[in-house]
Design a protein that fits this description.
By secondary structure, the protein is α+β, with helices and mostly antiparallel strands. The protein folds into three domains: 100 residues, Rossmann fold; 70 residues, ATP-grasp fold, A domain (Dna Ligase, domain 1), CATH 3.30.1490; 250 residues, D-amino Acid Aminotransferase, Chain A, domain 1 (2-Layer Sandwich). The chain has 16 helices and 22 strands. The strands form six sheets. The chain has an eight-stranded antiparallel beta sheet with strand order 13-12-9-10-11-14-19-17, with helices on both faces. It has a five-stranded parallel beta sheet with strand order 3-2-1-4-5. A three-stranded antiparallel beta sheet has the order 7-6-8. β2, α2 and β3 form a beta-alpha-beta unit. α4 packs antiparallel against α5. Bound molecules: ligand MV4.
Amino acid sequence: MFKKILIANRGEIALRVIHACRELGIKTVAVYSEADENCLHVRFADEDVCIGPARAAQSYLNVPAVISAAEVTGADAIHPGYGFLSESAYLAEVCEACHIKFIGPDPRVIRLMGDKARARRVMKKAGVPVLPGSEGIVDSEEKALKIAKDIGYPVLIKATAGGGGRGMRVATGPSDFGQAFKTAQREAEAAFGVKDVYLEKYVDSPRHIEFQILGDHHGNVVHLGERECSIQRRHQKLIEESPSPALSDKLRRKMGGIVVDAAKAVQYANAGTFEFLLDADGKFYFMEANTRLQVEHGVTELVTGVDIVKEQIRVAAGERLSFKQSEVTFSGHAIECRINAEDPDTFAPSPGTVHVFALPGGPGIRVDTAAHSECLVSPYYDSMIAKVMAHGRDRQEAIARMRRTLEMTVIEGIKTNVPLHLKILAEADFVNGRLSTAFMNRFMAAPRGGRTLAEAV
Ligand code: MV4
């Protein structure tokens, strides 16, 4: 087992990894930017190294700085968390060259899944359902127009280097196809430096369902069921839950079997997530695979009892998964609300000093956060300051626990989206599990007492 792990991240996820390391008896190294000197991940790590200025490009995204910190502290592995360098095949390659274990899948698998058109092709070959679309990237508008006609409108033009919704454009017919194609290419080039795009049939108002998998270096892969992440705004997830209200046990077993086979086909080792769209007829289609620990991994931990981060560390060290698929059980229901430091009207970030930070806890509640009273929410990084998770025997109990927790949450000094969460949790469609990726758009537009939600919160 590793003796010392460097955590190339900050905030709640850096603390989450420290929890796992402490339980496993592994020493930790925090890295931090000049803006994060007083953060809890620095306080609770055994050692710490400042790796650069506040701007992430010069610190948390700086591969030479991270590697140097690992070298000088003698860390034998790096956990990248999520975001930042977590899906950097380059960091994983440099780690390999430096004989430092990267706690994540092989760089070749990271590269494969980072190329969305290629991932689609490989997954289709491995027996995973994909939407009608182009065979790989399409380099000319003329060819693309022909393919779009075959697929049938509406079609979606997606950046192959994209993911998370960036560089996507819908074309509703041949008349707006040219414009959408050019815009998608231009956005892809600007955002990722690669203008390549591919085409897919567009699904209206689907559910976002993702399967959690874990693989080891001995050919074992298990799935830990799904999370439904349909409640999101501008591709930022707000609420996630497990299980999905839309999946039967039969569909779960079917999709689970498919993702396990697909992961085995690419020799997937470590934690990963396979994203699907689920349409109104219950048909599902592969979208992309994320080769990292996800923000929302905690809801899966609550319903399965598996510590995903400890498993990640064990398998990276060459150990076998500590359980078999037949030993995975699902218990009750879990929901997560992402608490963001943002203005509830404008959604603009609301950084600053938190004067009071108090959450009640109690049965079935888990809070993952690096915030505390008198902490500083930095304008340099993501605005998510806490993940509140509620577990109950069923969905209704989980929702009730979430509501009473958020009602008794006191965060003063900055603005947060807690009021928004409480409004969503009270919405009939949410309570009845009628979720889709269109939920938030409808919700924001729906008038309440003569005002739209955007005006009311
Ligand atoms: C789609 C789609 C409809 N049809 N693909 C957005 C993020 C990326 N992971 C895939 N995304 C979508 N792909 C086809 N062919 C709709 C979305 C989408 C979406 C997906 C998941 C969660 C929220 C979403 C919000 C808007 C659009």
